[in-house]
Fold this protein.
Amino acid sequence: MTTRTDTHFAPVDEDLYAKAFQLLDPTPEPAAPAAPAVSVILAAAPPAHRPGPVEKTLTDALAFLNTHGWAKHRLIHPEGARCSIGALRAAAGARNAAYRDAGKLLLDEARRQHGNQWAAIPAWNDSHTGPQVRGVWEAAIRRAHHQNI
């Protein structure tokens, strides 16, 4: 048996197809006008700030005080609150360079705000109110941030 295939197709009537599609979808959505070309200049995002070890230690210590509370006249209060030195020790985890440098910066800022008579952080901490101590912490964190340390 021989099968014959015809490879010539009948010409397509484009209008007939358009009418058929219009019957299938009678309300075609109107074509939206072309939007005007807009030039967009994207500025490169500044690199994300990575705090240095001193800034991180100070920030973590202040977060510790915010969470556990601030204490006077003792390193660690029975309920978990700590003085400024206790918070620094908790944040640093060890008496490392970041701990020492953060303590120096904190004491320097305390002296800037409250006078040069403070020989150590515990004496300054015990002689001031919570808001005064917090203000020194926040200023020390800003200084560490600006110095990128």
